[in-house]
Design a protein that fits this description.
This protein has 19 helices and 23 strands. The chain has 646 residues and is α+β, with helices and mostly antiparallel strands.
């Protein structure tokens, strides 16, 4: 049976968040969207023009990208180029509604699990804006093959496993080439033609799924399903995306210049099919290691069009006659969640006593002492002193992200209901005393050293760490824990620290990739097959607790098993959500992670209307500038509230 599914995915999130948040309160991550439509230019003073009447948007940045290659990176900073320069099959508008992108229509065949997309005419351009080729269905096929080639080390390949038919089998077939993995499972090499992606003709693309995937359409706005020009991929290999002239572009902008630690320049792509809805002619991102400090000062001089106004500056800016009307906020969103990860596979130096930490972290009372001992309000107040409780989370999945068939918020369903703020001083002390007794019997020495690194390029992360150290050591005692704050590298922080396991306890975050609770299991879940555990994103390296046979092994295994059970429910939303809620409750009840906040909607100075841009609390929509006008003034809080109301 063939059905035409426009999959309206009318995100209750978009409408609920906009309606529910008023004043300074909110729950957000990046600049997202809601339509102010064509009124934004005239009603708010018109476009801001640069030389020759063009709209040139300027902002500083302090954390450099190591690549433009959207096919291999999983970091937000490095996905900006793909988000703005590469079009996707579908998009979301400023109200969070699904719309056509490169695909003009799509159908789904339930019998064969096959989606068919009809593509519009589109062009590839180079870094000068010159047209070089047509965009065809084969470009999607070639991009997916590139991601599934182990040589290119794509961090996105695992997003395809278990979704696209034979994606995992093709990838592992290349790794083992007919041989057996460490668990004895044989992975025969298969031809790429067996993978579930096909170019039927230049304008017809099909994806065949490995199973029913209820969120598939929403996942198409993530980098893993972006196209790339096949002949260029073949020519450049690992060099693809390493410079502005080493990739082609088909999106709203093309990258005219990529000078690491100097600047990035995006220019409007006149060949884009939707160029009439691109109102910024040039984006200049200027590198400065002190961007967080210099940005506000440059706003006062009118030299840049965006800067974050940090909490330590906010009162002065809001009270100053020259600055009070320059301050607004980013659009509220529930696309990002923050939580503290315990590292079950420490790889840091001997001076931080990794073996001692390994014993401590596998004791549930130890983890629960930190879990109950974290005063989330105090930490969030570093970023939002006026209404910190508006941003506090007790679940990994944010509130107002997803709703079941009855319109019920996922975080209020079943085992997730009534979790509330988990800070409890009395309970924390009880857990501490129990942990000290149990761990002393295992030979653990006190205080347990707790290495807590941070990225110095992230505004106020160091202050958050200081608050956590002071608050938790004061409550639990320095006879129990010694929190050691250490600055990590500014560039490649995730690779050098989190992915390398060089931490004991660290603030981590996750952004949704698609519209389903399953996306919030991706940081932690690792599937178990005959070949062992799939790599996953390894937040906390939880599977190590199983492979090493620690006391935490049964709990981690229970979580993995419950995720498996939830994933198996592919049609009925209500039991699927209830099953994912049971799995997430295991994470929280056993203190495997400590959820604490959605992203605080930061105070900013900006010449963009935050509610014009594309909106979806997943994928790369939040990174796009398409649809936004550059104004001739900074948006005031009054204007921001009016835009939000619209």
């Amino acid at each position: 049976m063939k059905k035409k599914r426009l999959m309206a995915l009318l995100l209750c999130t978009a409408m609920t968040v906009s309606a529910a948040l008023t004043g300074c309160g909110g729950k957000s991550d990046a600049n997202q969207t809601q339509a102010a439509g064509e009124s934004s230019g005239a009603a708010q003073g018109g476009d801001s023009s640069g030389e020759g009447g063009s709209a040139v948007y300027k902002r500083l940045y302090s954390s450099e990208s190591s690549t433009l290659n959207y096919l291999v990176t999983s970091t937000i900073e490095e996905q900006r180029a793909g988000a703005n320069c590469i079009d996707t099959l579908v998009e979301y508008d400023s109200d969070g509604q699904l719309k056509e992108g490169l695909a003009t229509e799509w159908t789904y065949d339930e019998a064969t699990l096959t989606w068919t997309f009809k593509l519009r005419e589109a062009k590839w351009v180079d870094n000068t804006g010159a047209e070089v080729a047509d965009v065809t269905a084969q470009d999607f096929v070639d991009a997916l093959k590139y991601e599934l080639t182990p040589e290119y080390e794509s961090a996105n390949a695992q997003n395809l496993f278990g979704v696209i038919a034979n994606a995992r089998e093709y990838y592992n077939g290349q790794v083992y080439n007919g041989g057996a993995d460490e668990d004895g499972t044989t992975w025969p090499a298969i031809d790429f033609s067996e993978v579930g992606v096909k170019a039927v003709d230049d304008h017809t693309l099909t994806y065949t799924l490995a199973k029913e995937v209820p969120y598939f359409i929403s996942s198409l706005v993530y980098v893993v399903y972006m196209p790339a020009y096949g002949p260029q991929l073949e020519e450049l290999g690992k060099e693809f995306g390493t410079a502005a002239d080493k990739m082609y572009y088909n999106g709203a902008f093309y990258m005219a210049e990529f000078s690491p630690q100097e600047r990035q320049v995006y220019k409007k792509n006149p060949s884009n099919y939707d160029a009439a809805n691109v109102f910024i002619d040039e984006i200049q991102r200027i590198y400065n290691a002190e961007a967080d400090t210099l940005g506000p000062e440059m706003i006062k001089r009118g030299e840049v069009d965006w800067a974050e106004i940090s909490a330590d500056l906010l009162d002065d800016w809001l009270s100053g006659e020259d600055t009070k009307n320059l301050v607004s906020r980013e659009r509220p969103s529930t696309s990002y969640s923050y939580f503290y990860c315990f590292n079950f596979d420490p790889q840091f130096g001997d001076e931080y006593e990794p073996d001692n930490w390994r014993k401590a972290v596998n004791n549930e009372n130890f983890r629960k002492a930190l879990f109950a001992g974290l005063d989330k309000t105090k930490e969030v107040a570093v970023l939002e002193p006026t209404s910190p409780d508006d941003y506090i989370l007790s679940t990994v999945t944010p509130f107002d992200f997803a709703f079941n068939a009855d319109g019920k918020d996922y975080t209020t369903i079943g085992a997730m209901a009534n979790m509330g703020n988990t800070f409890d001083e009395a309970k924390a002390v009880e857990y501490k005393e129990a942990a000290m007794t149990e761990l002393a019997a295992e030979g653990v020495t006190f205080p347990v050293k707790v290495l807590m690194p941070y990225n110095p390029s992230v505004v106020n992360w160091d202050k958050e760490c200081q608050v956590v150290e002071q608050q938790m050591e004061s409550l639990l005692g320095t006879d129990f824990i010694d929190i050691i704050i250490e600055a990590g590298p500014t560039d490649n922080f995730l690779t050098e620290i989190r992915r390398s396991g060089k931490y004991a306890f660290m603030k981590c975050g996750w952004g949704a990739d698609y519209a389903d609770p399953e996306t919030w299991t991706d940081p932690f879940y690792q599937s178990k097959g005959e070949s062992g555990y799939d790599p996953g994103y390894k937040y906390g390296f939880m599977a190590n607790a199983i492979t090493e046979g620690t006391a935490t092994a049964p709990v981690v295994q229970e979580y993995f098993d419950k995720v498996d059970a939830a994933k198996a429910i592919t049609v009925d939303t209500n039991p699927r959500f209830e099953a994912f809620a049971e799995a997430e409750a295991v994470l929280i009840d056993h203190a495997l992670v400590i959820p604490f906040s959605i992203t605080v909607s930061p105070y900013i100075a900006t010449k963009l209307n935050e509610f014009e841009a594309q909106y979806a609390p997943f994928g790369v929509s939040k990174l796009r500038f398409k649809g936004q006008h550059l104004l001739d003034h900074y948006v005031s809080m009054e204007e921001y509230e009016a835009n939000k109301e619209k």
